[in-house]
Amino acid sequence: MMKLEYIGIRVMDMDESIRFYTELLGMKLLDRGKITTTKGETAALQSPGSQLVLEFNYYEDGSPFATPYEAGEGLDHLGFKVDNLMATLELLRGKGVRVALEPFEETTERGTTATLAFVQDPNGIWIELFQ
To answer: Helix, strand or coil for residue 88?
Structure first.
């Protein structure tokens, strides 16, 4: 059996990314450490009540993995369920977070409807906020 334990994303600035996800999105920093083999650094974060872990990966100059960064490399978006989409979106917008897509409704093939919007983190990665 396989199950998803975490999602790893590459970040350009570890401290700025940790601040964004903890202060603005309410995640908790679980762990942070250096990986000498890759000349990198990782940090693990988690939302309260969630078992999914988000791992940040940063590679210093001289690491074979420190290739030129392109926003969203291999990652489409991260989804965050919120209690009040409009209030959350306005709070983030007020803190200078870039809104990529304003709220809209989406209906699934099963007929369920969700309201969602997208913002971007400091690395250009899209974050879906849905209610």
So the answer is: helix
Going from the first residue of the chain to its last (131 residues), give the mean pLDDT of each consecutive group of 10, the final group possibly shorter.
Answer: 77 94 96 85 94 90 80 74 93 96 81 86 89 85
**If DSSP codes are grouped into helix, strand and coil, which group holds residue 4?**
coil
Structure tokens at 11: 């970040």
How much is the pTM? 0.73
**Adjacent-strand bridge partners of 11:** none
Q: Which of 131, 97, 102 is nearest to 118 (CA)?
A: 102
Note if 55 is an active site residue: no
HSE-up (13 A, CA, CB side) for residue 54: 26
Q: Which of 89, 91, 108, 107 is nearest to 99 (CA)?
A: 89
Please give the Cα distance from 90 to 87 (Å, whole number): 5
Beta carbons within 8 Å of 67's beta carbon, 6+ residues apart: none
Catalytic residue among 5, 55, 90, 128: 128
CA-CA distance, 30 to 6, in Å (whole number)?
12
Residue type, 86: M
